[in-house]
Amino acid sequence: YPWETIKEYSEILFQYYEGVAKISINRPEKHNAFTPQTIKEMSEAMELARQDERVGVVILTGEGGKAFCSGGDQSVRGHGGYVGEDNVPRLNVLDLQMQIRRIPKPVIAMVAGWAIGGGHVLHVVCDLSIAADNARFGQTGPKVGSFDGGFGASYLARIVGQKKAREIWYLCDQYDAQDALQMGLVNKVVPLDQLEDMTLDWCRKILEKSPIALRMLKASFNAELDGQAGIQQLAGDATLLYYLSEEAKEGKDSFLQKRKPDFSKFPKFP
Ligand code: 1HA
């Protein structure tokens, strides 16, 4: 596909094609393990994808066909987090997880090869996951001295159930694509050479749909688990819709025209 580069980065690719933005971790020699810099770049790209009115769907993936993402780069793990060139330890992937949940457009994880540790959690928080037949899933935290008790635990449990989620974290086993399909952890499994075709096919189906309906659905699915923050997102979308109405515009117009608002003509629905 003729992907066009939106912006050049050092550790990711950020590309556009027909309504779709693709954010791809580009460290295949490390199975696409992330550093603070990788996450900083992904965060900026996600924000640009959010602001870009051409973009209706975001694909999250990894380059090379052998790994989606193997989590935090253990070789830069320091005292209190993953350390970049500024010598500051960071767990900034948690902010990226929030961005993936907050962006009012569907995010699809396109998973080839390893989705492990913090890389597994990244696919978990995406709206949809499409896996190649070579995909392998798992958490490693208790083995390598880490854990993600946020979405990595609670949202995983919503997806696969409490027993299975505890098994995944306590045993640190690896699961193949069919296992993942069976436990509802991925939406579809396809041969590796059809992964991008299938993912773009799903993107096209989504892009034909009503953007506001999709936006409201994403916020609604999030609201239950995200508590007050989820309700805030859903309520914000309700405000967006209200601002589109004549009734809300009467409030603003009357203020600017220094007169009393007249809401009498607006219906009081049963
Ligand atoms: O838990 C969190 C967080 C929790 C809260 C808040 C923030 C968090 C942020 C991050 C994380 C984490 O991600 S912790 C979990 C970190 N990840 C792992 O424990 C996975 C480590 N990797 C592996 O277990 C294996 O590499 C593998 C099962 C994915 C693949 O095995 P395989 O096919 O045998 O390949 P392997 O030879 O191990 O890997 C290829 C190269 O990639 C190796 O480099 P080389 O020896 O050739 O120089 C390997 O060291 C490197 N590599 C793979 N994964 C990582 C890595 N290097 C650094 N960090 C990695 N994660």
Automatic annotation (TrEMBL):
One of its GO terms (cellular component) is cytosol. Pathway: Quinol/quinone metabolism; menaquinone biosynthesis; Quinol/quinone metabolism; 1,4-dihydroxy-2-naphthoate biosynthesis; 1,4-dihydroxy-2-naphthoate from chorismate: step 6/7. It holds the Pfam family ECH_1. Substrate binds at residues 70-74, 82, 114-118, 140, 146, 243, 258. GO terms for molecular function: 1,4-dihydroxy-2-naphthoyl-CoA synthase activity. Its EC number is 4.1.3.36. It comes from the Bacteria. Residues 250-270 are annotated as: Disordered. Keywords: Lyase, Menaquinone biosynthesis. Hydrogencarbonate binds at Q139, T140, G141. Its cofactor is hydrogencarbonate. SUPFAM superfamilies: ClpP/crotonase. GO terms for biological process: menaquinone biosynthetic process. It catalyses: 2-succinylbenzoyl-CoA + H(+) = 1,4-dihydroxy-2-naphthoyl-CoA + H2O. The keyword Lyase applies. The record marks Y82, Y243 as: Important for catalysis. HAMAP family: MenB (MF_01934). Belongs to the enoyl-CoA hydratase/isomerase family. MenB subfamily. Converts o-succinylbenzoyl-CoA (OSB-CoA) to 1,4-dihydroxy-2-naphthoyl-CoA (DHNA-CoA). This is 1,4-dihydroxy-2-naphthoyl-CoA synthase. It comes from Larkinella terrae. The gene is menB.
